[in-house]
Write a structure and sequence with these properties.
Blueprint: H1 2-20, E1 24-26, E2 35-39, H2 41-50, E3 53-56, E4 61-64, E5 67-68, E6 73-77, E7 81-85, E8 97-100, E9 107-113, E10 117-118, E11 121-122, H3 129-139, E12 142-145, E13 162-180, E14 187-202, H4 210-213, E15 220-235, E16 243-244, E17 246-248, E18 252-254, E19 256-267, E20 274-276, E21 283-295, E22 301-305, E23 315-329, E24 334-337, E25 358-371, E26 379-382, E27 389-399, E28 405-408, E29 410-411, E30 414-416
C-alpha cells in the first residue's frame, strides 16, 4: 500500500509543478525586505496573490502577519529563508493560522517545498532552526518560526494561531520544512491526496515539559483520505501525529481512511496514535503507523477521544501500529480510551458514555520499550460496557515494566508472544 501511495503522490506532485509553473516570482521583487525588523506582510501577500509560484531566492528573515495561500500554487525556497510570525501578539490578527487557506472552499494543487541535503542525508533530520538562522542559505531550508514562547504563558486565555492551517485540500504536498515554536498546532491538515515528508517540528526544544511547556502544539494533525506522512522528526508538547475524522465546513464530518505514517520520531509530546477529536457519526479506518520511535512522551501509541466535544459518535477500525520503539512513556505504553483523553486512567465504563466511540480490528505488532512509569500500567484498554472494543491483536509486544495491563470491556481479542501478557 505504501508503494502505491508513494507512486501516486509523486505523480500528483509532478502535476502540481507543471500546472503552477506559469508565473514564477521572487518575493523581493514585490518589496519584501527580509531584515527581521520590517513587517513584510503586504509584500509577501502581494507576491502570493499575483503569482502561481513564489520563490525565496535570497536569504532573509521575513516578519509577517498571516498569509493566505490559494489553489494551483507553489511556495518554494531556493536560497534559504526564514518566515517568522509577527512578534507583537496584541496586534497579530486572530484567525485559523499563520499560513492558511480559505477553509470554506476547496483548495487544490498546493505545494510547499524547501529542498536540501547534508552529506546525502535529509536535511530536515539534521538541522535545527537555530542553525537555520545562521546557515539557511547554505542548506536550502524553509523555516517557519511561530515565536510560541510569547503565546504559551497565556494558555487558553487568548486565541493562539496554528502555524499552518490547510483545510479542505486536494493534492497537497509539503516537503523539507522546519516549523519552530508554533503558538498552537504546528499543522492543521484536512484533505485528500496529501503527502507530508521531511518535516522537522520544534516546540519547546530546550525542555521536555510536554503540554505544560508547549501547550496544544500538535505536530502533524491530519484527517482525510489517501494521506502519506514520512521521514519526519517532531519535538512538541501535545499529540505527535493525531489522525482524525475528515471535517470541513463544506463537507461536514466524513470518514478518514487510507493513511500511512512511517519513519517518524516523536519526542516529549503526549502520543503517536489515533485521536478522534470531532463530533459526528464518522469513521477512521485503514490506518498504519510503522517504523517509528517514541521517546519521553506521556504515552506511547494508541487511541483516545477528546472531551472538548459533547459527543463523538464515530468508530475506529483496521488500525495498525507496528515496528515501534517506545522509550520512557510516562503513562501507558499502548492504550485505547473511549471514555476520556487521559491514556492512563479509566472511569465511567459501566454507564453509557457520552462519546459512543467504538474500536475494532486494532493491531499492535512488534512494539518494544519501556511503557508505564511507576504506578502506571504497561497498557490501558478502557472501553465501554455498552460498546466494547473487539478484535484487538497484540503480537510480539514487550514492555520492560513493573506494571501489567488494565483491561476493561474488551472482547474477541488475542495476544502472541506478548510480555507482560494481557488477560485475553
Amino acid at each position: 500500500m505504501a508503494g502505491m501511495l508513494t507512486t501516486s503522490f509523486l505523480l500528483l506532485t509532478v502535476a502540481v509543478l507543471t500546472t503552477a509553473a506559469q508565473s514564477r516570482c521572487n518575493v523581493k521583487s514585490f518589496g519584501a525586505i527580509g531584515d527581521n525588523k520590517t513587517e513584510d506582510t503586504a509584500a509577501l501577500q502581494k507576491a502570493i496573490d499575483t503569482c502561481d509560484h513564489v520563490v525565496f531566492t535570497a536569504p532573509g528573515i521575513y516578519l509577517s502577519k498571516p498569509l493566505q495561500l490559494h489553489s494551483d500554487f507553489i511556495f518554494e525556497i531556493e536560497g534559504g529563508a526564514i518566515i517568522t510570525m509577527w512578534h507583537n501578539i496584541s496586534t497579530f490578527p486572530r484567525g485559523p493560522g499563520f499560513i492558511w487557506v480559505n477553509e470554506s472552499v476547496l483548495t487544490s494543487n498546493l505545494t510547499i517545498l524547501g529542498p536540501g541535503t547534508i552529506d546525502g542525508s535529509p536535511v530536515i533530520l539534521r538541522v535545527t532552526c537555530e542553525l537555520c538562522f545562521g546557515q539557511a542559505s547554505q542548506y536550502h531550508i524553509l523555516c517557519l518560526v511561530g515565536q510560541g514562547w510569547r503565546w504559551w504563558p497565556y494558555g487558553k486565555t487568548i486565541s493562539r494561531p496554528n502555524t499552518m492551517s490547510f483545510i479542505d485540500m486536494v493534492n497537497f504536498t509539503m516537503d523539507h520544512i522546519v516549523i519552530k515554536d508554533s503558538p498552537a498546532w504546528n499543522t492543521h491538515l484536512r484533505g485528500e491526496h496529501m503527502r507530508i515528508t521531511n518535516v522537522r517540528i520544534e516546540a519547546g526544544l530546550g525542555t521536555c515539559g510536554g503540554y505544560h511547556a508547549a501547550p496544544n502544539t500538535d505536530g502533524i494533525n491530519i484527517g482525510g483520505r489517501h494521506i502519506y506522512v514520512a521521514d519526519s522528526w517532531i519535538h512538541n508538547g501535545d499529540d505527535c501525529i493525531p489522525t482524525n475524522v475528515f471535517g470541513t465546513p463544506r463537507l461536514g464530518v466524513i470518514d478518514s481512511f487510507n493513511i500511512t505514517v512511517e519513519r517518524v520520531h516523536c519526542e516529549c509530546g503526549t502520543n503517536a496514535g489515533v485521536a478522534i477529536v470531532q463530533s459526528g457519526d464518522a469513521e477512521v479506518r485503514d490506518v498504519i503507523f510503522r517504523d517509528m520511535t517514541v521517546n519521553r512522551t506521556y504515552s506511547g501509541c494508541g487511541m483516545k477521544i477528546s472531551e472538548a466535544y459533547e459527543t463523538v459518535l464515530g468508530q475506529v477500525t483496521n488500525v495498525t501500529w507496528e515496528n515501534i520503539q517506545i522509550h520512557k512513556a510516562t503513562l501507558a505504553g499502548i492504550y485505547i480510551n473511549v471514555v476520556e483523553e487521559n491514556a492512563g486512567s479509566c472511569t465511567n465504563t459501566s454507564s453509557q458514555p457520552p462519546h459512543w466511540l467504538t474500536a475494532s480490528d486494532i493491531t499492535y505488532r512488534n512494539i518494544t520499550g519501556t511503557g508505564g512509569g511507576k504506578g502506571q500500567v504497561a497498557a490501558n484498554f478502557c472501553c465501554s460496557s455498552s460498546r466494547p472494543c473487539s478484535n484487538l491483536n497484540l503480537i510480539d509486544v514487550t514492555f520492560n515494566s513493573e506494571e501489567l495491563y488494565s483491561v476493561h470491556n474488551v472482547i474477541n481479542s488475542h495476544s502472541e508472544r506478548t510480555v507482560p501478557k494481557p488477560p485475553f
